[in-house]
Amino acid sequence: MTDYGRPLRFGLFVSPEAALLDNTFALAEIADESFELIGVQDHPYQSKFLDTWALMPMLLARTRRVRVFPDVASLPLRPPAVLAKTAASLDVISGGRFELALGAGAFWPAIAAMGGADRTPREAAEALEEAVQVTRLMWSGQRSVRFDGRHYRLAGVHPGPTPAHDMGIWLGVGGPRLLEFLGRSADGWVPSNSYFPPEKLPAMQQRIDDGARAAGRDPAAITRIYNVFGTIGDTAAADPFTGTVEQWTATLTELAVQTGMDTFLFGTPGDDIGQVRRFAAEVVPAVRAAVAERRG
User: Which SUPFAM superfamilies match (predicted)?
Assistant: First the structure.
């Protein structure tokens, strides 16, 4: 059993599809009323997608309290120094409502076709580790910073602005090396149930915790965000992520108090507003109550 005792949070995972723009704005209104986070997937090579970094400022402008972040930023197509400056700028403009999550990259032929680096798994891991260091330097408030890595360099750049709040760096990673690095050097983990189902999470959490303890960090300081894709139905299903409210409630409660996930972002086919409203009205309060009861 692993429960880090962190506050329970909920949010939405949305797609930046151009054809769904009005729907996305409607979802942002719901999120501002009912959730803590909006995560926007970042796949610049998708022809039907708007650019995530153009959409996120619009979501911030149309909301007042919910936080927004890329879920997760495609690092091979976005230089980390520029990413860090953009993230800090959005945080300042929104009054501290932006978060940053980075991914090492996926769909490499599509990335290469758009002019990005076509990296091996080792190179992608190295680049992500360097990007975390670059980001922290760009947020440091120092007069001038330098970094000489294999993939990225800073040659006396003047960083700024600094974020409006103590912004962490979250990583969407899954391999042993990067999970341990996350524990040592990052602030949050963002896996998805479509890639990492619940039964895989405990061993991955242990990797993060081992890395944190080796660096003298408290594992409970690291947030654990789970993108949960599925649908809420009226009949029980073998897959709890396509089952009833009761199944969803039981599954998310166990993930919180047994597996240590503290934040759940709901995604559903077509970004269905009815499903989102049902998640907000029926699943979220039931999970909050169940977790509170289990925690005593």
Answer: Bacterial luciferase-like
